Amino acid sequence: MINELLLQFAHWMEAQQYSQMLVAGYYSYSWLEATHVLTLMVSIGSLFIIDFRMLGLMLTNVPASTVANRLHKPMIIGFLIMFITGILLVYAKPVETIQSLWFRIKMILLFFAFINAMVFNARLKAADGSWDRDPVAPKALRVGAIISLVLWCGVVTLGRYIPYDWVDCTNTNNSTILWAAGCVEQLSAL
Amino acid sequence: MSGSLLNQYVRTIGLVAILLLVGILEVFEVRTSIYGSLLPFFEWMRQSSWLGVIGTTYGSIYATVEAVHLISMGVIGGTVLATDLRLLGIVFRDIPSETISTGTHKCFRAALIVALLTGVFCAAGVADKVYYMQVFWVKMLVLLAGSCFMFFIKQPLLNSRPHAEINPWIIRLLAITSILIWFTVAATGRWIGFS
Amino acid sequence: MNKDSKWDDKEIAAVGSGVIILGALLYYWVGQGQSTVELLELAYGSFKLFNNPLAF
Q1: Mutate: best of A36, A39, A59, partner B, most B CBs <10 A
Q2: Are the beta carbons of B42 and B131 closer than 8 angstroms?
Q3: Burial bucket for residue C33 (CB in 10 Å: 0-12, 13-18, 19+)
Q4: d(CA C52, CA C56)
């Protein structure tokens, strides 16, 4: 039922004037996608520096909380831009995107990455700070950093897979994949 | 005396020599003849080299390597922005800029190596297409110039003395140039993907 | 930097290469901007981002 609702929503978005304009524009979709990808340098860049610091891989002579606090704003700005451009990308090609298996898995990973970030920040605030100048953070924060790195690498990788049509609705007969990707029409035809 | 002058100004002399060489190559149109002779190599890369064969046969491997290329681009961007925004006095203002510039350089170097290796694989898969794209050659030129700038000019100067002893306008010039170099490499790379 | 503020090799090379590279990149991006504007004017008749007359 969720798949049917999502498909209906996607068709509704596709019929919107601004959705069609974004796709039909000479450069609009390309610039949107380019902004989304290039902003990785700001968002993922900042995030990875924080994670690498926690793991003792860089800036080990800078207090860990300082690295996290100073890079927090650029990271949030980067993610905000990626979030906005991401929504617009879905809005421009809603049916294709919502029925993409890779997009759906990417959203799940994004959700877990967000949860991990909340837990990480809470642990960072709760930690007593005695380790702040140590080259390596306490174990709980290191685990959070590794999970963060794995999840975000997954998000980027799945984002890269979206344009490929290997398991598109029209290219597979596997019922599990068709269900997972929300290919309602193809699943009912099986 | 001329020997000691050579030793004292090796980078400046090297820069002038490179500019002269580029000028001579342009005047005698060496670039266009070199370009023509590269086509067989690019065709071989795509059709016969194992990089090109794997890239064109297994789309999933190609896409995964592209993703690693993007992630390394993200790390390059992060280290460059952290260093250069510090040099411009925008972030990490309470941490000495020497600490940030030396602390991020190793990571930058590692990410650049990963980006280069994955970039070669990605280019091999579409070598016969990128050969004809002007934007690909622009990216290669900026990448070469940018890497030489980082390793032979910017980092040696920043490592040679406390930054307070360096003219602040030189520091700003280094930071802005570095940001624009890596933005250009990333943007032209994305443009290749669109073409 | 020497006390008499004479630039040394690294500083001269930094200024020289920085000015050349920055100048070349700015020239490149301004050129790209100009050709993009021209292309959009060719495609749409005037400079706009979308080909819908109701667009912002």
Answers
A1: A59
A2: yes
A3: exposed
A4: 9
Check residue A170 and report its DSSP letter.
Answer: G
Residue C3 falls inside a structural domain = no
Residue of B11, B161, B173 lying closest to C18 (CB–CB): B173
Helix (H, G, I), strand (E, B) or coil at B34: helix
The candidate with the shortest Cα–Cα distance to A110, out of A165, A182, A19, A43, is A43
Give the CA angle between residues B146, B150, B154 to the nearest 5°: 130
CB A74 within 8 A of CB A157: no
- Number of domains chain C contains: 1
Domain segments of chain A as ranges: 2-189
- Residue B95 neighbours by CB under 8 Å, 6+ apart: A62, A66, A70, B86
Whole-structure pTM value = 0.91
**Parent domain of C26:** 9-56
Which residues in chain C are closer than 8 Å to A26, comparing Cβ atoms?
A: 39-40, 43-44, 51
Question: Is B153 in the C-facing interface, judged by CB distances under 8 Å?
Answer: yes
Q: Running DSSP on this structure, what letter comes out for residue B29?
A: T
Establish if C18 belongs to a structural domain.
yes
Q: What does pLDDT average to over chain A?
A: 91
Backbone angles phi, psi at A135, to 5 degrees: -65, -25
Among residues of chain C, what percentage have pLDDT more than 90?
45
Question: What residue spans define the domains of chain B?
Answer: 38-194
pLDDT per residue as tens digits for the range C8-41: 889 999 999 999 999 999 999 999 999 988 888 8
